Amino acid sequence: MSISTIYSAAIRGIVGQIVTVEATNAPSPQPRIDIIGLPDAAIKESQGRVRSAARACDLPLKKGVLTVNLAPADIKKEGTVYDLPILLSLLDMPGLDKVDFSECCFLGELSLSGDLRPVSGVLPMAVAARDAGFKFLFVPADNACEASAACGIIVYPVKNAVQLVNHFLCKKRIIPIEFNKDDFFAVADDTLLDFSDVKGQDTAKKALEIAAAGEHNILLIGPPGTGKSMLASRVPYILPTITMEESIETSKIYSIAGLNSELNPLLAHRPFRAPHHTLSTASLIGGGSNPKPGEVSLANNGVLFLDEFPEFDKHNCEVLRQPIEDRNVTITRVNATVNYPSSFMLICAMNPCKCGYYGHPTKPCTCTPQSRRNYLSMISGPILDRIDIQVEVNALDFSELDTFIAAETSEKIRRRVCRARNFAMSRFDGEKLANGMPLTCNARMQPKHVRKFCVIDDGGRKVLQLAYEKLGLSARGYDRILKVARTVADFDESELIKKDHIALAVQLRSLDRKYFNN
Ligand SMILES: Nc1ncnc2c1ncn2[C@@H]1O[C@H](COP(=O)(O)OP(=O)(O)O)[C@@H](O)[C@H]1O
Ligand SMILES: [Mg+2]
Ligand SMILES: [Zn+2]
Which of 104, 154, 190, 454 shows the smallest number of beta carbons within 10 Å? Predict the structure, then answer.
């Protein structure tokens, strides 16, 4: 009896782990393959594929009863990733027994004819293999580009089982693929959505710029066709450029979700996710019997846009609270708990009323005051509590639409956003949140931080008092205005919050001013 050991990988949350595939054979007149080590149905099916692929490719398997053990036993192994390492561990070919596989890691699903099919989760598994010290990684050719983004491990694209065997028998070597950092940053610019495409809407643009700088969540309110979706989809490009670290983190989530096609080989821009209001809770926050990351995690390091916000299911709004607060989601199921990051900027959009035209200059609103109130009361309270800025996006005048004057580009706005963020960051040096995470933006200031960092001058205090008394603000509303004013002052690089800063922050609380308190 001989034991052969081949390495592969698995995923827990967004972290990859090394899996050992050990195969033994015992003589028996009845040939059989047994796979042990918590295999799910897919792994059992793997037997069929491995056998068929070996037959189709004329690759001889060891004889007798073959036992394959996937270790460690306590991690749940799912999917079809292990076809390739299992096949390799069972091959009985002269020359192959002398190959040292100890520095190689293998991932990939086999077709019945022995071709390799792409699998999901290759990026986190590639990172794990690299971190565990493996030198070579063999993956399906369609996953190779994505795997190469792990950097620091040599990635071989494999088209079929025969090609792999020939590689190790030195008959024909596979050419490894290399990750080119320049390719990553030089992504086609034609995918960029620019703010200069949006005419007028100066207040909404200013509000989004402020939101981007302080990481404030924001609600856009306006009739259909005024540019709310247009504006929201452009926000990723006024946020600071995504870093390599952030891109890898979010790309891992795409990889696990099986959205490999959107990786090229990594996400080159901050993600923008706009799920429909009818989506299921599992699609929103993640989960399902074979847990997958949800929209909140696909939006990690980017923007989550909830259009037609009042239409979203109450339960979905409830479960959104955890990812918004904690910046990660915990998904629990029978025998495992996984964690996915979910740090996103939330943008919500809605019509001002059921018919959509309340406040429109030409189209009449057909709603009654009661139905308008009902419509607004459909907005989820718990989410509204986490939205610092609410701004109206009104219908454009003809003159605003009929212009050739180019509006500001995203690039120019982004530069201001970065400057304001840097100013805020230098103030927060070393400051911690209750969960021990560093405080990095104004939106996440807790009451003690608001008292420490939001110092108002006399003029500012007068405006704030007036607003408080006239709008009947709550204590929480008061804190929110201060946080937004803090961001406004950061654009001026002013430690002191002044009158104009407060006035603009008050203006960015549309619901307080107009809808709820009149
Ligand atoms: N401010 C604007 N500047 C340029 N085009 C606009 C503007 N607002 C709307 N549009 C045009 O109308 C279309 C619909 O806009 P959209 O952003 O979907 O509106 P909303 O989300 O508010 O209903 C856009 O694709 C664009 O062609
Ligand atoms: Mg829209
Ligand atoms: Zn109406």
Answer: 190
